[in-house]
Amino acid sequence: MKPTENEIIISLRNISKRWAGKTALTDINFDVRQGDFIAITGPNGGGKTTLLRILLKLLKPTEGNVTYYRDGKPADELSIGYLPQKNLIDSHFPIDVEEVIASGLIGENLPSNKVKSRVKETIGLMGLESHAKASIGNLSGGQLQRALLGRAIISRPKLLVLDEPLSYVDKRFEHYIYDLVAELAKTTTLLLVSHEMSTIAGMANRHLIIDHTLTECHSAHHHVHYDCDD
Ligand SMILES: Nc1ncnc2c1ncn2[C@@H]1O[C@H](COP(=O)(O)OP(=O)(O)OP(=O)(O)O)[C@@H](O)[C@H]1O
């Protein structure tokens, strides 16, 4: 599939990142367009998470610029839902599933009854009804992953950034997440980091390999070798 011709919502220009002299990313340039479903893959340590964090403005690049656009004009903010890699979460933080999911609505200024109904709906969507009051430290890896995915989607963001959404999720729920992502892709711009060759990356319309530099592939069969087939 060809990239969509819709308007640009994020542009990255000449992004480089170095940590203590070690280069994580070199001269990355790309645009995210509204309606894109972008799958990002690449070897361990290639810089995928670093790139996502720069794109989310959680991390400053050593060089280069990230610009958000709304209605074609540069904007300070963009509504983004983010599912981080599970190992970036402190699961000892004393917070329960309902609170984690509700925290995805911070800044939305919704009335409390609306917040309640959205939380309930999202908990149902994530199959976490029986764990709503469980502290996140007592969840299995897959349950925590679902709670974090619920937090990422509850605000119905314009862009959803998913870093390895299938890690820790069991086979049964994996299919459920495929279907959910397919459904979300109809209305939401998606950026998905996925290690392995997977059906989920096959749903994307653009495929990027990040191995310190960026390569955009024009077929979806590159995941095994981290190399474009074409
Ligand atoms: N906070 C940090 N301080 C120092 N170096 C870092 C930091 N975060 C990442 N790095 C380094 O930057 C490089 C890219 O890491 P990053 O986590 O972005 O890769 P990745 O492609 O997401 O890897 P993985 O597939 O293992 O998740 C690695 O060499 C890593 O050690």
From TrEMBL:
Sorted UniProt keywords: ATP-binding, Nucleotide-binding, Transport
An MF annotation (GO) of this entry: ATP binding
Gene3D superfamilies: P-loop containing nucleotide triphosphate hydrolases
Pfam families: ABC_tran
Keyword Transport on entry: yes
Superkingdom in the source lineage: Bacteria
InterPro entries to which the protein is assigned, alphabetical: AAA+_ATPase, ABC_transporter-like_ATP-bd, ABC_transporter-like_CS, Metal_Ion_Import_ABC, P-loop_NTPase
Residue ranges constituting the ABC transporter domain according to the UniProt record: 10-230
SUPFAM superfamilies, per database record: P-loop containing nucleoside triphosphate hydrolases
GTP-binding is among the record's keywords: no
Family indicated by similarity: Belongs to the ABC transporter superfamily.
Name by which UniProt lists this protein: ATP-binding cassette domain-containing protein
